[in-house]
Structures
1.
Amino acid sequence: MIRRLALLAALLAPLAAHAFTLDAPVEQGRLIRGQTSPKATILLDGKKLPVSPEGKFVFGLARDATGTITLTENDTASVLPIAPRAWDIQRIEGLPPGKVNPDPEGLKRIQREAALIKAARSQVTDLGGFVEAFRWPANGRISGIYGSQRILNGEPRAPHLGLDIAGPTGTVIRAPASGRVVLAEPDLFFTGRTVMIDHGHGVGSIFAHLSASSVTVGQVITAGQEIGAVGATGRVTGPHLHWGVYWGAVTLDPLPLMPTPVPPPLP
């Protein structure tokens, strides 16, 4: 009997309840913030995640992530299924043909600029902005949502991986959380005037199509601080802010982080 009980205990050990908590469902496109004990070790699918002195950790799931993830807290593994989401189709007409199908010179430029953005996204710091309650970066109307399949001038393209907020040129843009500026470029092919802010632990924001920016690389930013203004630079059909949230190379949906389902109206 004792041997049977010991065997049963060994079999049930991997199913022991984990001690960590998560602030969001495990589903496609989500930024998920966790809480554990300050000295715990957290692995995501075998990869160690940074844990803050307060026991905070974070990870993200891509739009097309499927199957399960394994979160290991110290020696206890938890297998969590990834919930799917439904995605819309968004059609956009009237874009300049050269912005939809770039020529060879345009492609070279795109590759150079992609390397700049990749380098900015690869930074992993101990900044703590990722744990804050994110706020709307601009007032206006939601004109594009994360995950929607894009059809540009009738041609199917990659999904839209951000949130678009339409408003007049010059509408103030504010930092949704604290951090440090890691990119401030005046004119990128697709995104025009672009700013990127590192919020810590691999989490960051990108702000595109700006008409003006008021920050420089390396500048420390507080939540709510003005960083620029809405514009129509880059590949656009009208003035709006494209706001993207990322965790390293994984681009995430900003909308679930917001305190309300729509941004404040324009004054």
Note: Residues 27 and 83 are 4 Å apart (CA to CA).
2.
Amino acid sequence: MTDDTVRRGRWRGLWPRRLDPYLAALVGTVGLAALFPATGGSARVAAMACNLAVALLFFLYGARLSARETLAGLRHLRLHGLVLAATFGLFPLLGAATALLTPVPLSGQLQTGVLFLCLLPSTVQSSVALTGAAGGSVPAAICAGTYSSLAGLLLTPLLAAWLLDVHTALSAEGLLRIGAQLLAPFLLGQVLRPWIGAFLTRHRRVLTPVDRGSILLVVYTAFSAATAQGSWGLATPGALLGLLAVLLALLAAALAVTGLGARLLGLDRPATIAAVLCGSQKSLANGLPMATVLFGPQAGLLVLPLMAYHQLQLVAGTVLAGRWARAPDAAPAGQAPPADQVPAALTGPGGPPVPG
């Protein structure tokens, strides 16, 4: 067997053989909202259903997350500190810089969307899958993504209220609204986990359509409002090209800085892979519901940068995973971690939607 054959085989194992149906559904939902937006009474019904869907998503997050297994991963303190610093420190600084340094300024909504993207937590599922394919530390990636998601429940709304001056400003009313729609369902899920956690784990394949259907409803509601408000006129070809350039620059900077930070902290190779992949990714599944809570009917085009960045991070992560997997000192790609180090609710098909 030649080296070229081996390389092609490894790429086939990392690169998807067909378009992910869920990603196709996301794009189709945006098109549906552009052609047939919910207006009038149907818009109010869609908004109410969207609020319920957001509460359901965060309830399921809480019910599936084992506090014991999460605390067990605290031994990777340097790695987790790097990921949190990149997610909630580096990215907000880069997002603010784009408004000043971008050669072609983006429209108000797209620029706000870029900054909102930079305030979001990292992923779990995609970063774990890519870390495993690259021969990195899967348990570290699981815990890093989980801690980032938990921190994002508090930090993302606070940073958004401070940096974006959204209508949910730092007031008692705004914080209560965020708590009621995000934190309360999550905490309720944690409280009920001893009774329903095992059931959710056993039936995670069945519940996947519930998770993804809820996110599709959030997408449809947000882009319906954008269509009704005539916001699509801002998404000109020039604006979209400028947005693509900004997102590519953000991703490149995040990858470079997290890689440098891992070397300076003396992380070993598996931990470095986990840190780079977790520290450079942003959660679509967390970001879309948060946008509806923070921006309401104005969410529309504000989530377009997030949806575009999600695709870019998957492509870049796949390419990097391929390079790491081919390295002479690489660990076996996709090697399973010890069972006692992997939270069962965070692995396998139908795991929590926190990741995406």
Note: The CA atoms of residues 182 and 324 lie 37 Å apart.
3.
Amino acid sequence: MAYKTLFSVITDTALAGPVLDQATAMAKAWDAHLDVLCMGLDRTQTGFYYAGANAMILQETITRAQEEAAEVEAHVKEILERSDIRWSLDSGVAQLADMGRHVAQRARFSDLAILPKPYGEKRGVEQEPILELAMFDGATPVLMVPESGPALTNPKRIMLAWNESDEALAASRTALPFLKQADLVRIVVINPPVHSPTRSDPGGLLSQYLSRHGVACEIDVLSKTLPRVSDVLMRHAEDTELDMIVMGAYGHSRFREAILGGATRNMLENAKIPVFLAH
């Protein structure tokens, strides 16, 4: 198993650098093809226009989105043309509420989506739903790239956050190409359930499963000494000098749309290293 089709969505030239650095480095290392979707977005909410608004306003927002798409496409094309990887580029315009079909349709036919950190200063409101759409609607794992740091092709020290959930198991399986090449994978368990049948050996069955794939792993059982689980994970990642975090992405339904849960959101808000997510 390997990642042979990589996918990314770029809506802002200011966020393109780290994402494309990571994507092109991975495409070269894994002999993969990179698909990039450049989008210009109409961020207005037409239902809240003041009385008397007319078609000229609608046309103005569409024209602005088209100009943004052209600017992003030119920027991304310039970067990719300097690389020596196989790539394709597509661009389009959509309203915020209509991004789903564009992002999910392309994500479905890729092995891994590489996307920017969705939270922080000067980040558009579209970054969070793009990540959600790729993962929930597109059923594709996502590698979230932070603002800075070197591009990782074969991270050597990886944390695997484990809580026996379906999401964590899905992340373990889809991250196998990374895990198999790592020098060490730390399976991190926080406060194992008291009545769990694996209480005496938390993470044992997972480590057995991974070891049969040639993954070198150890189990770290931690106490929840900080208010949030994500804080414990990030502190442990810093203390053990890890290169990447692998975790399940948790969400819940709101108006029949899956959105990120609190633990996943907290991790993405504060992570300083790449985070691999799967649902």
Note: The first helix runs from residue 16 to 30.
4.
Amino acid sequence: MEKNISEDRIRIVQVKSEIAAGTRGASLGIDALKIASLDLNSDYFTRFDEEEVETVNEILFDGFEHPHAKFIDGVYTMESRVSEMVKKVLDEDNFPLVLAGDHSTAAGTIMGIKNHYKNKRLGVIWIDAHADLHTPYTTPSGNMHGMPLAMVGSLDNMDCRINNPKKETVELWEKIKNIGFKGPKIDLSDIVFISARDLEEPEQFLLNKYSIKNFTTDEVRKLGAKEVAKQALDRLDNCDIIYVSFDVDSMDSEISVGTGTPVKNGLTAEEAKILNCELVKSPKLVGWEMVEVNPTLDTENKMAETAFEILEETTNSMMS
């Protein structure tokens, strides 16, 4: 490890934000994980210190003014707050284990990591059904949980432009891209996707342009989850540090009912567990994140129970 990840160094960073999702309820995901831990008789949430990022979820009641980047003013606030919190955790020589609602705030996590490790090259492993590379110029929905990697890559993707966002939207988008410091936080070629399978044309264009590797679900089946984890890390061999982001919708829609955008032909729970447990063994690991558990879409908290088992085993693997 860059530094030993011991139990006393892990900080659970809670981000109960859901303003960038298309459906409501992701803000309740962290509490659903805590309920799952109780139902599974686990002491997990008593073992680690927690930090909570203040949210602006109340703006959801006001309606949105930016159709091509819904609630972008609030998203700017959240990215700034998450970035500051993650940087603070790292500055204190602790490890940020982030549990978040919608996936947009993962941009803030990356910004915080890069603000601490300014001169280090950051590799990102994104386990997700979606590529999250849209911009206000390319989004079909305007939901900003589809934009975090474009934020940290400082992208507009004008080659695939279909929208004409308002001047105020563009100004806020530029502010988001420059949180922490001006310009990109990662090189797009330093992203590896696992099980991304619901990609729109503008996103596929970027995967091709930057030669971004996507290990498909079929490849995970064929090679095995352990081998895919190894190959993913090998592809980021030139990176100094690694961050892993795990969206529960990477799992098959039969498992991930309790998430906002389930997609079929995804990972099994066991594959997701093995992938995360192997990836976090990397000595370059500086952050890990789980997102998009939504108990309002679930039955009997099954999604959160599955996600919690992955969370607990991944954390134990991280420390071993």
Note: The chain has a mean pLDDT of 97.
